[in-house]
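Field guide to reading this record: the first block holds the primary sequence, the second block holds the structure written as discrete tokens, and the final block holds curator observations. Each block starts with its own label. This record concerns DUF2269 domain-containing protein, catalogued under organism Metabacillus rhizolycopersici.

BLOCK 1 — SEQUENCE
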Amino acid sequence: MEYLFYRILIYIHVLSAIVSIGPFFILFPLVKKLQVSNDTELDAYLHTFRFVVRLAKHSGHVLVVSGILLVVSGPWTWGTPWIIMTLIILFCSLLFLARAFSPTLRKFHEENQNREELAAKLNRSIWIYIILLLAMLWFMVGKPVLW
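BLOCK 2 — STRUCTURE
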């Protein structure tokens, strides 16, 4: 029974990782449309963007909880190097996610804002966030021995 529980946790953990990373790739074409859209289209694009960010946050919660349960019930300890590095990157990505998207998305409705600059900032933020998430994914899958 314990083995089944652990396997289900792994499945939940992997699924939540996919949901927290995958939707960000659909934002690249959306960012291009933010530059040239009219006000009606802009609201729809911004709503989609916010939804993706919110989805990533909530799937990140599932990812963290399932990760904690996996460490507690599995063969790994909190002192394992790849777990420590994953936690460091997780903390960095949480700080980054909190500041990277929402303030920039709000600026699209302000007067005299350069949409091209805002879109470029969003594009850069998407890449940074994806790289952070892929680094965490590499540590979780590769489990490198660092020290």
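BLOCK 3 — OBSERVATIONS
The radius of gyration is 18 Å.
The chain has a mean pLDDT of 90.
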